Every structure is written in C-alpha cells, then in structure tokens.
C-alpha cells in the first residue's frame, strides 16, 4: 500500500524516444508553420526570423544530441555601452533559470546581445519534446528581448546609430 505522501515507484523508460536529428528538428519547425532556411556552411544549423529577431536552431554536443535555440537581438550596441548591457544581462540571468543571455563582440566597436536555450536530448526525444523545446526557446528569448527594449525605452533610438 502506498502512503498518501508517497508516489508509486516509476522506472525511467526510453520507450518511444528516438534520436534527435536535423530532419526531426525541421519537421517540428514545419509542424508549427515556421519558415526557416538551412545554413549552407553548417549542416547542423537552420536559421529563421521571429518578431524581427534572427534565430538559429542547431544540434550540438556529443553525438549532436543537444538542441540549442539561439536568438540575436535586432539592435547593435556600441562597445561604449558594454558595461550597461552586461549589467542588464546579468540581472536577467540572476533572476531566471533560462534563457541564458549574454553580450558578444561582433566587430570592432560593436556588440550583439544574444539569448539561448539548450535542451539535452542525448537519450532521445519524443516529437512533443522537440516541439516544446523550440517553443520554450523562442518564447523565453523573445521575452528577454522585449524586456530589454522596455528597460532601455527611449535609449533604443541611440543604439544603432
């Protein structure tokens, strides 16, 4: 008999899980009606735009078993604002589990702001898990970008000049 505060013993099952692949990733994007293009130089990456933000969906890690959703903010930031942008990213990272957000130098004097979410599917995944990982990556990275735009307010006009 199971006590009220106990759960029946469950064993982990990999039944129904299949290896993640670029074909399955693309099938998921198609299921949701998302337009994307394959990366000519990197077979493990597809690119897309959502809310005017550039995204990459890629398989990384050992045996390409990790699905990573990475978005780039649509604004470019002058390097003189690096400390400000790092503080905003760090504040987000301290208060939320995901997505990971960061600032990266893209060229001399210019910075890009990114958000990314990784889902470890090395043991395989159901189609619904891949779908959820993509939706979660998109929604949380876009939420960060919108939050950043709200925080910066009128300063946004100064960023891309």
Which features would summarize this protein structure in a list?
single chain, 161 residues, alpha+beta, 4 helices, 27% strand
Could you walk me through the main structural features you see in this protein, from its secondary elements to its overall organization?
This protein is of the alpha+beta class. The protein has four helices and seven strands; from the N terminus they run H-E-E-E-E-E-H-E-E-H-H. It has helices at about 20-30, 80-95, 125-150, 155-160, and strands at about 35-40, 45-50, 55-60, 65-70, 75-80, 100-105, 110-120. Strands 1, 2, 3, 4, 5, 6 and 7 form a seven-stranded antiparallel beta sheet that branches. Helix 1 (about 20-30) crosses helix 3. The termini are far apart.
SSE layout and pairing:
Layout: H1 22-31, E1 37-38, E2 45-50, E3 53-60, E4 66-72, E5 77-78, H2 82-95, E6 100-107, E7 110-120, H3 127-152, H4 156-159
Helix pairs in contact: 1-3
Query: How would the global form be characterised?
Result: elongated
Structural class: alpha+beta
Contiguous uncertain segments of 5+ residues = none
Q: Can you write the helix and strand succession as a string?
A: HEEEEEHEEHH
Count every beta strand, where a strand is a DSSP E run of 2 or more residues. 7
Number of helices: 4
Query: Roughly what is the average pLDDT, rounded to an integer?
Result: 90
Helix fraction?
25-40%
Ends apart, CA distance between termini: 69 Å
Radius of gyration: 19 Å
Report the sheet with the most strands, covering strand number, pairing sense and barrel closure.
7 strands, antiparallel
Question: How much of the polypeptide forms β-strand, as a percent range?
Answer: 25-35%
